Amino acid sequence: MVDFTKKNARDLEAERLALIDEADGIARLREGKNARDLNDQEQARFDELTSDGGLIDQKAEEVDVQHRIEKNRDAQRAAKLGAYSGKVGGPYTGDQRRHRVVEPNNGGIDPQLARLAGGYFTAIAAAAVGDYDKADAARGSLVQWGASEFATMTEGTPSAGGYIVPTPIASEIERRRDEVGVTSKVARTFSMTSESLTIPAESGRPTTYIVGEGNSITASDAALQTHMLTVKKRASFLRSSPEFLADAAGDAGAWIVDAMAYSAAEQMDSELVNGDGTSTYGGITGLVGGIGSAAVKDADSGETSLGLLDVEDWTGTIALMPPKYLDDAAWVMPRATWNNSCLPLMANSGGAGFASLMAGAPGTAVNWFGYPVHFTEQMPTAAVSTFVAFLVSKRHGVYLGDRGDMRVAVTDLEQFQNDLVSFKVTHRYDLLLPEPGNADDAGSYVGLKLAAS
Q1: Among 141, 277, 279, 280, which is most exposed with the fewest C-beta within 10 angstroms?
Q2: What pLDDT score does 390 carry?
């Protein structure tokens, strides 16, 4: 099975900028107070990026070519579709379909993309059971709805190869993953164009002095350190009968999109929160396992359950975080913490109205002591000596290295004898918590823990 998933010009431009950032990061290793010579691996990577005809130049050429392709494709599509205004979301142009804001509907599933998913899966299922008239009709509907790709390995019978679900469906799965998961909301995302990425980070700032007229200025340098992101592949896999897909294609397509998105979100959030550095979590050390002891706020003795936490526990947690990390900080907590600690504290404070309490409803943006709250059910179950919330700096707390878009593939060959259609989602990324603190100083995130007794 061959993956023909394509990237648009915007994605390619992001990759080009990421390559430039990587080259700048390597170059800065030779500058400043802690300047040093590049090692052989760093020098080779720098040359690979910046030489004439190197990776940056190659990516710029890809961007230019893809811009021309998209311009021609959109012109052809506009001429073909004309003023189509069907019932699946309106007369979008090609560019609007790629960049429009997706409004949640029907439990968060975009009806346009859900219908496209159902259409693609209808065509796949019909071909799998030999109903090629139905498959061709489904493909015709997809063209009318604005779909531009329906790729197989060969030009003949559709069932002769693997099917690649086009970019809109993969994009919807990725959007839903980020919508229901917490990681992308609190992470600083880096687009990766190779398996690893070196990120320079500030470890010391230059000093500003008061200088008299004619006096020399004391020299100082900004100290830098580096962090490394190395991607690993995550994959999910499910099977279904073609009869199920053909008979309930619209709903089945929407359900598959949602199921894959939730699975990806749960995995990513579990790595962020519970990662212990083992292969189970892709080598990632998460919030619970990586936090420095100076960044932990232990609840007072006797506060062994959520309902016993008081205001001082929460303000004490905030006070642990160094001020330079507070500007973009956000809470990460399970809904149990919000429902059993935060809401009762608001209700008992005497100043909270009904509207404030309703801010805890699912899907509604909420704040706690001035910082946004993001919910995840991957946190440990509240018990003695367990973390119930973290306050995380988005810029410095979590790095998410993303190696391209999700890829979604479909085939009826993997379980051909059993007459099943297989769906696969793969995504490559890495997570890193670069400044977790230590026994002496809190880092870029802090945590609140229930008392031991």
Answers
A1: 279
A2: 98
